[in-house]
Amino acid sequence: MTTEISRDPWATLDDLLGVDVIETVDEGIGPVAFYGRCSTEDNQDPETSHDWQLSNASKFVEPLGGHVVADYFDVGQSRSVPWERRTQAARLLAALKNPNRGWNAVVVGEGTRCWFGNQFSLIAPKFAAYGVDLWVPELGGKFDARNPSHKMLMSVLGGMSESERQHVQARVRAAMDAQVLNEGRHQGGRAPYGYQVVDGGPHPNPRKAAEGYRLRVLAIDEVSAEVVRRIFAEYLDGNGDRAIANGLNRDGIPCPSARRPDQNRHRLADGWQGSTVRSILENPRYTGYAFFGRWTKHETLLDPEDVAAGHVTRFRRSQTDRIVRSRQPAHPAIVSVEDFTQAQLLRRSKGAGGLETARKAERSGRSTKRQYLFRGRIRCVVCGRKMEASPRAHGTYYRCPARTLAPGSPALAQHPPAVYLREDPLRDAVNGWLGGLFSPDNVDRTVAALVASQDESGGRQGSQEAAKKRLADAEARLRRYRDAIAAGIDPAALVEATNEAQAERAAARAELDNAPAPGTLTDAEVYAMIDALGDVGAAMSSAKPDKLASLYIAVDLQIRYEPDAQAAHATIQPTSRVNSKRVRGGT
């Protein structure tokens, strides 16, 4: 026994313990699945990218006895998107649960293309749970979760991938900024309404020109350009966005998505909207200069409660310092720089005035032969539009016809063919309600309600302070520019900066000039305001249209009409300084 032990002690011990020892045989990796990814943002050919990544993966595993039997390749997916939200990567993860998948390992062609940030630390445990190995070329073998060096290296690769993506984005953006600034080059995308994209000759890049690429430039589409000129002209004449849109719909002018459905497949082509007019009025490219970066991509968490779900991309307005304008005109202008600047100043001044100036902008300013007591003061609850006066032989009505709605408007589903509201009963009900509010018995209660409903948030004061700060900043910059020119700086180098500062100064002054007086009203001031209205009872008892109309204007009467319930809800706000919840009453 001693001789046997000394000759092979482990064999003797295994025999005593009853342990069967199996000789390990290296059969190689065996069948593996390949995963790769290609983002077309860098103009890579997906087929070429797939081939070289698959070739790298095959050369990596074939000497170790591996052969690719399954292929998962994502095209057009950013590396920042988690695996669960990539099409092919999600299929691969789903295949892990299938015991008959036919492979027990996954190989990638390049780790930095497949994982981003901390994605690997979230994905690797899933593979380990199903007994699937991960083979990464940068590791020189398969990933070992027990090896701290492997974990550290994969973390570094994820950081490198994130850094590479950010550097690529910065370089591309800098190059596009320079092209717009120096050349006024059109950077692609949908042409603004009023323009069309045409061939501009060979591409300025010799390599791309040799491959047949052509330069694309903007040219005027005369039919739609006339509509753009009309929009700016009407706006400068005092019409608001919705009033302009309604006029274009009445004249049967196709909206942008109806005129160019090929480049507006995401739109409903349901007629002109106020937002469409606003976007045209705020687009500086109509001046003939190229602008770039007015909107930028922002990545926000898909679910703030689940950071691992990754980010989604949203477009938002850029900060002013991120917007680039060409030094010279880049394409034919549809409106002059002066008209466009005047429109922007007008918009800012209206914005500073709040809803009061917005309501004025909706009116067309047409003169009428008769007095309409509730002109511009009644809105249809179904569609939100102002109801128009419609005189008849037996009385005056206010109507809201469904036929004037934009085709395809959601309001058409619930809007009656025509909504009518007669003036006489409405006048009597409103006068009775107002008479009760301002009667000597109820005036104290009305004053208390008006004072209590005032907004004490100080929002307007804050807005005025911000405008004052912008004005002071613009004037300070202009002084610095004048001092620099006096010191010998070339004035041409400061033209753009000076023009920008002057525009900001003019906008801030317009905002301050149109801002309402700050402060809230006391009880005494509200009593004085009501006294200034005069004898409300006499105005209503006389029933003279001009006096009644003046009273309605003084109290800023607004009415919302519900055609189904045949009920009109009236609100008043006797002074623009009382930004209140309003005294409410039904008629």
What are the salient characteristics of this protein?
four-stranded mixed β-sheet; 44% helix; Hect, E3 ligase catalytic domain fold; elongated; Rossmann fold; five-stranded mixed β-sheet; alpha/beta
Q: So how many helices?
A: 21
Q: Provide the helix percentage.
A: 40-55%
Low-confidence stretches: 359-365, 575-587
Q: From the structure provided, what is the oligomeric state, counting identical versus distinct chains?
A: single chain
Overview of this protein structure:
With 587 residues, this protein is α/β, with parallel strands linked by helices. It has 4 domains: 30-166, Resolvase, N-terminal catalytic domain (Rossmann fold), CATH 3.40.50.1390; 195-290 and 326-353, Hect, E3 ligase catalytic domain fold; 367-455 and 521-586, no CATH class; 459-514. The protein has helices at residues 2-7, 9-17, 46-61, 87-95, 111-114, 119-129, 148-183, 206-210, 222-236, 241-250, 256-259, 274-281, 337-353, 355-362, 423-437, 443-452, 459-486, 495-514, 523-532, 536-542, 545-554, and strands at residues 30-38, 66-75, 105-108, 133-136, 141-142, 195-202, 214-220, 291-292, 295-301, 311-317, 324-325, 378-380, 388-392, 395-401, 418-422, 558-562, 567-572, 583-586. The strands form 6 sheets. The chain has a 5-stranded mixed β-sheet. The protein has a 4-stranded mixed β-sheet with strand order 12-16-17-18. It has a 3-stranded antiparallel β-sheet with strand order 13-14-15. Helix 10 packs across helix 12 (274-281), helix 13 runs parallel beside helix 18 and helix 17 (459-486) packs antiparallel against helix 18 (495-514). Residues 359-365 and 575-587 have low confidence and may be disordered.
